[in-house]
From TrEMBL:
Gene3D superfamilies: Outer-capsid protein sigma 3, large lobe (3.90.1320.10). Residues 1-36 form the signal peptide. Keywords: Signal. The keyword Hydrolase does not apply. This is Neprosin PEP catalytic domain-containing protein. Residues 175-429 form the Neprosin PEP catalytic domain. It holds the Pfam family Neprosin. Residues 167-178 have a biased composition (Polar residues). It comes from Trapa natans. The keyword Zinc does not apply. InterPro entries: Glutamic_endopeptidase, Neprosin, Neprosin_propep. Residues 157-178 are annotated as: Disordered.
Length: 429
């Protein structure tokens, strides 16, 4: 489609000169065609990137320039990426869940903990300082050219590498450091689960290299850990490759085939249907907890609506963000078979040594409140749509000298755990 004009002229005169001219022309044509093919593959990539950006970035009703450099586009709810999915062409958007799980813990009642007192200032997203999105629109973090170019390919942008799931059951020394992913998690299995909840301490862990990340999240898992693993994930992450900075961001992920062909982060593919106009997936969270200082946390609830079967997500007490339609999944159309909560980092082993990328606050669980990162009030949703304390909690970490996890249980925090660590240290090399 991109044409390059080029003219060729004739040469005349004596034979020798003609031959030289031909040689020169031939040389010229050769180098021109080299440049042209380079240009063409360059412009092919440019075109591919442009097409992808056009698919992702819908025409906004309004745009908000966030202080962190993001542009938040308010796009009409009906224009959102989900509706590019062929199965969703005639989908009637649901503006609220039919059921909401009944809870053990009323967050507003729990006011005696240090963290609760600190929560006088509600956690926020940075772009709120500049503006809001109108009703019937949703805020979408605009994908920039550079975001896509940082990915290994246009196709891989917004997608996880294969098989990054922590798999406690098959944990064995031989599996340590599989794919360089390291975890410190708690989990439950052996029952049917219809959702999970947690309140997650928010930090900004240091990332040693831009191809690594550090996240804290919950996993709703269906199926065995084969090629058809279903997973719904949400939490916060620092991921320089995905976002181009070191900010802590709210994120979601889903896949129905163990991260192979389906699923993505946030709204970077068709899948999640957002109904909320206040919270943007992938946007920076603020403020962030500081060591021996103010602590902040976010709460995330994901549950399956018993009537429609969709998986809904709520952020904090006030924001029902939207839902993953049931048809996206196989096992999860029925129920989840495992729930995990905790941290994950990529250890790319630069220089053959363990990375110093931090998990959680970058401090070990022993340090406790204000220093180590926590999950509190971890709960599961049962068949009757009740939030319950998880039974038979297990813990898992590949190398506890790098990142560790410690569970506890008390009246204020219900089931909780501290997790994380600094990565590289004298006992983790
Ligand atoms: C992110 O942090 C690392 C060090 O932890 C730093 O080298 C890098 O420049 C930072 N990246 C950006 C985009 O700020």
């Amino acid at each position: 489609m991109v044409g390059d004009g080029g003219g060729g002229g004739g040469g005349g005169g004596r034979k020798g000169r003609a031959f030289a001219v031909v040689l020169v022309l031939w040389g010229l044509m050769f180098s021109v065609s080299c440049v042209a093919s380079r240009l063409e593959s360059g412009s092919k990539q440019t075109l591919e990137v442009q097409k992808h950006l056009k698919r992702l970035n819908k025409t906004p009703v309004k745009s908000i320039q966030s202080p962190d450099g993001d542009i938040i586009d308010c796009i009409s709810m009906l224009d959102q990426p989900a509706f590019d999915h062929p199965y969703l062409k005639d989908h009637k958007i649901q503006m609220r869940p039919n059921y909401h799980p009944e809870g053990l813990f009323d967050e507003n009642k729990v006011a005696s903990t240090p963290a609760a007192k600190e929560r006088a200032n509600p956690i926020n997203q940075l772009w709120h300082q500049i503006g809001i999105c109108p009703e019937k629109t949703i805020p979408v973090r605009r994908t920039k050219r550079d975001d896509v170019l940082r990915a290994s390919s246009v196709k891989r942008y917004g997608r996880k590498k294969h098989r990054t799931i922590p798999q406690p059951r098959s944990a064995s020394p031989g599996l340590v450091n599989q794919n360089g992913h390291q975890h410190a998690i708690t989990y439950v299995e052996g029952d049917k689960y219809y959702g999970a909840k947690a309140t997650i301490n928010v930090w900004e862990p240091k990332i040693q290299q831009s191809n690594e990340f550090s996240l804290s999240q919950l996993w709703i898992l269906g199926g065995s850990f084969g090629e058809d693993l279903n997973s719904i994930e949400a939490g916060w992450q620092v991921s320089p490759d995905l976002y181009g900075d070191n900010n802590t961001r709210l994120f979601t992920y889903w896949t129905s085939d163990a991260y192979q062909a389906t699923g993505c982060y946030n709204l970077l593919c068709s899948g999640f249907i957002q109904i909320n106009n206040e919270i943007a997936m992938g946007a920076s969270i603020s403020p962030i907890s500081a060591y021996r200082s103010s602590q902040y946390d976010i709460s995330i609830l994901i549950w399956k609506d018993p009537s429609e079967g969709h998986w809904w997500m709520q952020f904090g007490n006030d924001y029902v963000l939207g839902y993953w339609p049931s048809f996206l999944f196989s096992y999860l159309t029925d129920s989840a078979s495992m729930i995990e909560w905790g941290g994950e980092v990529v250890n790319s082993q630069p220089d053959g040594e363990h990375t110093s990328t931090q998990m959680g606050s970058g401090h070990f669980p022993e340090e406790g409140f204000g220093k180590a990162s926590y999950f509190r009030n971890i709960q599961v949703v049962d068949e009757s749509n009740n939030l319950k304390a998880p039974k038979g909690i297990g813990t898992f970490t590949e190398q506890s000298n790098c990142y560790d996890v410690q569970t506890g249980n008390n009246g204020d925090w219900g089931h909780y755990f501290y997790y994380g660590g600094p990565g590289k240290n004298p006992k983790c090399l």
